[in-house]
Write a structure and sequence with these properties.
It contains ten helices and 14 strands. InterPro entries: Gfo/Idh/MocA-like_OxRdtase_N, Gfo/Idh/MocA_Oxidoreductases, GFO_IDH_MocA-like_dom, NAD(P)-bd_dom_sf.
């Protein structure tokens, strides 16, 4: 049985705690946060060990794995301390605030043979996994364009500031909503060679962007467009969508439905000419504990199993997530008028 720790018990941290508590491979759980109010509630209703100092928590509990869900600016220092103490690390996105820092922690994890994972949960959603299978099977032929988008109501007025509105804290739409879409687009078709015409648009925030728009160019001549806006109150919650155009058809998918259009019937007979639809309920493997959606439990189960098996190579490892951080840097530079 593994000993696990969670640093930061906000929305994601509490979600991780609930899922870990129900996991059959987790024997004990320690948590760390600076909020006395939150820790008093945790102490009252659970048997978790509670700390306000993550270093003390790591030293006293001899953890096997650590989950980091603090504001992004703290990621690097916590990751480094955990890795230096030979602890396997799951970190919420973005991995760090720069791809240079992400490269540093990734190299340390590789050198020590530790298991790592970043919380890009879209890769655990059944419809997006289906899209990836269809692309790998060349169902729509040669892909020549991809659109990635996400919209939601995070910042919908000019009142109130949190760490999400401070660039020094790791705030802004690019490191939050857009990071998920960039990672998903890389998962589908690989990393772009360059970006151009990037707009980092302030709508209500004063210090960070609320929307990200950009054109993406790939080594094989393929093109792409990114459109992300977290000040879109016409959406009830974050809605992510991928549209991929190929010479033999098109795939359109969100987290609920995957639609495939084919110019001709597929040779295997599984797909009809015209539109074919696949729903999330038919594409998702059941999980032992469902909180907020199967993908959140599935990503933690994947990480825990990799720790048990000592498998350092896997989906969303620090090394694999470096591509996402590099594209984020390209977008930041291009949006600021620098080299992309």
């Amino acid at each position: 049985m593994l000993k696990a720790g969670v640093v930061g018990i906000g929305k994601m941290g509490l979600s991780h705690c609930a899922i870990l508590r129900a996991h059959s491979d987790i024997g004990s759980l320690a948590v760390c946060d600076t909020s006395g109010f939150l820790l008093s509630g945790i102490k009252k209703y659970t048997d978790f060990s509670c700390y306000t100092d993550y270093k003390k928590m790591i030293k006293e509990n001899k953890l096997d794995c650590l989950f980091i869900s603090t504001p992004s600016k703290f990621h690097k220092e916590i990751i480094l301390f955990a890795l230096q103490n030979n602890i396997n690390v799951f970190c919420e996105k973005p991995l760090t605030l720069s791809h240079e820092d992400s490269e540093e922690v990734s190299e340390l994890a590789e050198a020590r043979g530790l298991v790592t994972q970043v919380g890009y949960h879209n890769k655990f959603i059944g419809t997006f996994q289906a899209v990836k299978r269809f692309l790998d099977a060349a169902l729509i032929g040669d892909v020549y364009h991809i659109n990635g988008s996400a919209y939601g109501p995070v910042v919908i007025n000019e009142e109130g500031e949190t760490w999400r509105s401070d660039p020094k804290e790791g705030g802004g739409c690019l490191l939050d909503y857009a990071a998920h879409v960039v990672d998903l687009m890389i998962y589908m078709v690989d990393m772009p060679e360059k970006v151009s015409g990037t707009i980092l648009k302030k709508v209500y925030s004063k210090k960070v962007e609320d929307a990200v728009y950009s054109n993406l160019f790939y080594a094989n001549g393929m093109t792409g467009q990114l459109s992300v806006n977290w000040s879109e109150e016409t959406y009830r919650k974050m809605t992510t969508k991928i549209e991929i155009l190929g010479k033999r058809g098109k795939i359109v998918s969100d987290a609920q439905e995957c639609q495939v259009y084919l110019k001709d019937q597929s040779p295997c007979g599984k797909f009809e000419k015209g539109w074919n639809s696949f729903w999330i309920t038919d594409q998702t493997e059941p999980v032992w504990f469902n909180l907020r959606g199967e993908e959140y439990s599935a990503q933690i189960d994947c990480f825990v199993k990799r720790v048990v098996e000592k498998n350092s190579a896997g989906v969303n490892s620090f090394k694999n997530s470096l591509k996402t951080d590099k594209v984020i840097s390209m977008l930041q530079n291009d949006g600021a008028g620098g080299k992309a």
